[in-house]
């Protein structure tokens, strides 16, 4: 049976993902920035959160950890490399480790650069990836604790996942990312076409996430960068970009 993923928009542009496996009845939450709306969303569906999966230590991804654990007894999983920065962590994960939701297995991919220990959760059999602040729709995370070389390696690696892989990232940055993507690759018709859809969706107040690996391969200027140098140039331009 398929995993069910519920999008919970919180703060100004964060997405928390509530993930349920009906076969086992298990529910986990990815990157709870806050607790209240997440607990409410679970309660409304009759679900009990038994685990929290963090991609990295930033407060807009871990801020709800303590309160959700207090309310549910959930076990908190996250990157071993950031254990010192996530005091609520129960289980430390590193490259190649697996985490389960019922019978569904996610593999941990180390995807550092935004933060030094950032991880991605990949459910290969379900064709789902939770990429946190590493891969966004038409964007990538800022290089706060790592290098363009690391982010380039992340992009190359994620690009090798099957095109149909659904990508759940942690922010609604798509329209801003797309405005820069149009400048980075002005001749890319796929970006022009996607941006028309994105602008219309945002005007209607709709989310533009999740995305897919195939769509990112076609339209993401960071995944499409031909080298770490080009990714670094694009990242610097995006950081300074004002549309
Ligand atoms: Zn972050
Ligand atoms: Fe974030």
Detailed description of the structure:
This protein is α/β, with parallel strands linked by helices. The chain has a single domain (4-240), classed as Ribonuclease Z/Hydroxyacylglutathione hydrolase-like (Metallo-beta-lactamase, Chain A, 4-Layer Sandwich). The chain has eight helices and 14 strands. It has helices at 36-44, 59-62, 65-72, 148-159, 174-184, 189-203, 213-219, 228-240, and strands at residues 4-10, 14-21, 26-30, 49-53, 75-79, 91-93, 98-101, 104-110, 119-123, 128-132, 135-136, 139-140, 166-169, 211-212. The strands form three sheets. It has a six-stranded mixed sheet. A hairpin with a 2-residue loop joins strand 7 (98-101) and strand 8. Helix 4 packs across helix 8 and helix 5 runs antiparallel to helix 6. The longest helix has 15 residues, at 189-203. It is globular, with a radius of gyration of 17 Å. It starts with a strand and ends with a helix. The relative contact order is 0.13. The mean pLDDT is 98. It binds zinc ion and fe (iii) ion. Residues 56, 58, 61, 114, 133 line the site of zinc ion.
Give the secondary structure arrangement, pairings included.
Elements: E1 4-10, E2 14-21, E3 26-30, H1 36-44, E4 49-53, H2 59-62, H3 65-72, E5 75-79, E6 91-93, E7 98-101, E8 104-110, E9 119-123, E10 128-132, E11 135-136, E12 139-140, H4 148-159, E13 166-169, H5 174-184, H6 189-203, E14 211-212, H7 213-219, H8 228-240
Parallel strand pairs: 3-4, 4-5, 5-6, 10-13
Antiparallel strand pairs: 1-2, 2-3, 7-8, 8-9, 9-10, 11-12, 13-14
Helix pairs in contact: 4-8, 5-6
The protein binds zinc ion and fe (iii) ion (FE).
The site of fe (iii) ion (FE) has 6 residues, from helix 2.
């Amino acid at each position: 049976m398929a995993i069910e993923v519920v999008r919970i928009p919180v703060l100004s542009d964060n997405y928390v993902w509530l993930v349920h496996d009906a076969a086992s009845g298990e529910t986990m939450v990815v990157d709870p920035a806050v607790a209240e709306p997440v607990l409410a969303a679970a309660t409304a569906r009759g679900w009990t959160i038994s685990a929290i999966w963090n991609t990295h230590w930033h407060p807009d991804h871990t801020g709800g950890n303590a309160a959700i654990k207090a309310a549910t007894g959930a076990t908190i999983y996250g990157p071993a490399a950031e254990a010192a920065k996530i005091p609520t962590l129960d289980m430390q994960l590193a490259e190649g480790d697996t985490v389960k939701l019922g019978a569904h297995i996610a593999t941990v991919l180390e995807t550092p650069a935004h933060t030094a220990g950032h991880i991605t959760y990949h459910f290969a059999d379900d064709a789902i990836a939770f990429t946190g602040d590493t891969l966004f729709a038409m964007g990538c995370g800022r290089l706060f604790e790592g290098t363009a070389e690391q982010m380039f390696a992340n992009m190359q690696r994620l690009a090798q996942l099957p095109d149909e892989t659904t990508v759940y990232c942690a922010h609604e940055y798509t329209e801003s990312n797309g405005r820069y993507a149009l400048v980075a690759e002005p001749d890319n018709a796929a970006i022009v076409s996607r941006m028309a859809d994105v602008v219309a969706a945002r005007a209607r107040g709709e989310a533009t996430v999740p995305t897919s690996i195939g769509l990112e391969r076609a339209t993401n200027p960071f995944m499409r960068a031909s080298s770490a140098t080009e990714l670094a140039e694009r990242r610097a331009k995006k950081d300074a970009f004002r549309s």
